[in-house]
Structures are given as structure tokens and as C-alpha cells.
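Continuing the series of single-chain predictions for the mutant panel. This is the parent chain; the variants come on the following pages.
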Amino acid sequence: MSTFFQDISGLYKGPQTGTTDGLQQLKVFPGHVLEICLDENSSLYESNRDIGKIRFRDLVREYNKEEKAAVKTAYPLDRSMARYPLPGEEVIIFRAFGETTSPNSTVLANIFFYSFVVSTLHNISYNANPFVGTDKYHIDKKNPFMSYDQAKKRLQSKIKNANAVVDVDNKPKVYKQLQPFEGDFILQGRFGTSIRHTATLPKADNPWKSSGTAGDGLIILRADRDSTNKESDMLTLEDINVDDASIYMCTSQKIELDLACSKYMRSWAATYDIPAHGSAEAADTFQRSVDTSGLWQKAVETDKPADQAFKAPAAAEGGDTPNPPTPPAPNTQTTESN
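Parent structure:
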């Protein structure tokens, strides 16, 4: 048994000088992303299978190699749940058996795959680092006095939408990350989107703790543009009344809502005389009289557009305004004279 664990541990150790390792294709190591293929315009593109492929620097064996000479590439490890890195970020490289070495060959090739963007800056939005496992001289030997800002810009220039991950001062944006609670399973994107699988936890400090039995499940989908560049402001909680968009899938929880509606249209609150307790904009709507016209009912009972079915004809000169025509019954044909 001890021999077994020694063999397993060997998979995660670099080979010693002057030795060969028959299991080398199974080793994992860190890699620094230099570019990524996202469409046919990439220099890495040969076919659609190359979408998501990266060129990387092997941080174990290529620390002293000039960047343009780093030619190793890797594919997404699991395309069903892929997190695509940005140039400058660090990933974990896996070496595994892939396709055959040639069309008629029976010999499998060793293929690199990558997974797990390493949050070196503790930021899910942007973790690019210009000097991972190397120094300025090994980036470009023609420019050994490259500044830190120049090194950053060489990577940012490879990102088509760098302004999505850095602010006007070139500091990394931090789209706020969710405060976790016991047992949470959280999926978070780079740009303020998240899915939290959680539950009622009476001793946790969150808005849904006070209702339901402990362990009653809750799923929250959220999208919000709230970002910062201060680590102290990094964590946040979902707020259905503040977030840009959200969906709550509750079991027994009660989520307090502030009613909000446009003051330019009648709301359900105005129609059904719901007590005013919402936003100031909604409160203006409550001052209007309750809608008793029933036009919303008539509009769905006719096969004509509402503006045609209920538009009264112009009154004759000097005459009284005629009553609006009675809308036709559903699925009936009407003939209009010229």
C-alpha cells in the first residue's frame, strides 16, 4: 500500500535531472497563458476544435526561455464546464493521452489540457500577472529593461475587451464576489453573474435566514455590475431590491420586495388597490384612480389589435361623439366597408 501512494505522489513531482519517467504524460504543472484562441482570426486556429486552445509558458521547464519561443499549447480539459482564461493568467496543465500521432497510427499522442484558473490576485474577474515564473529579460531579450507597466500592457494588448477587466487607471476591476455561508455551492462568472445553491441557515447573517426550516433549499441567480478595485470591498450579498437582475427559487423562504413600477402606466397595485408600500415612483401610481375600464380584458378577447378594436370613429361635425363599437367575439370574421 505504501508503494502505491509513493507512485501516486510521484505524478505531482517534476522529473529529476538525468532520469526519464514513463508516467510523465500524467503529470500536472502550472502554465502561464500567453494567448488564447477564441475565433478563426487567432494564429492558433486551424479548425473549430482549436477554439479555447491556449499557448502557454511551462512554469517548471521554461522559466528561462524567451516568450516567443514558448510554443506549447493546451486544450480545455472539460468543454462542458470550461472557464476560459485571459492572457497573463495562470492555469493548471494536465498531460494525458489524446488522439493518435497521425491518421493511420495506432500510437496515442501526449496532449496538454488545462483547467482551473489560479486566482493569484484573489480576484475572479482578472488575475493576469506579467512575471509568473520568469523575469523581464526572458520575456524579450531585446528589451531587458522593460518596465512593469510595459510588461502588463503586452498581455492586455492581447485582450480585445481589456476595459471590461481593468478600470481607467489600469487597475484590475473586482466584480464583487459573494459572501459564502456554510454548505454553499456557488458558481460565479467574471463579470458579476452568479448562481448560489444555499438553504435556510438560521444562524447565518443573510436576508433569507429568518423563514423556513433549517436546510430548506434556495437557488439565487444574480447579475449585477457592482465592481470595485479595493480588496476590502470585495464581498457582497444578493439584494433583490438593489441588484440589476435576479431570480430566487424558494422552498419556504420569504424574500421582502419593494414594489417598483413605472409612473407612466397603471400597475397591478393600482388596478387591484394594493396598499402603497413600495418605491417613491410606485407611490405616485397609487394616487391614481383604480382602473375599472377593463380594457386589458377586452384586448385579449378580440382578434384585432387593441388600437383598432377600441378606437372610436371621429364625430360628425356638430354632432355628438358616437359610442365606441362593440368588439367582435373571439375567432369571428368581420367585414369593414370602405
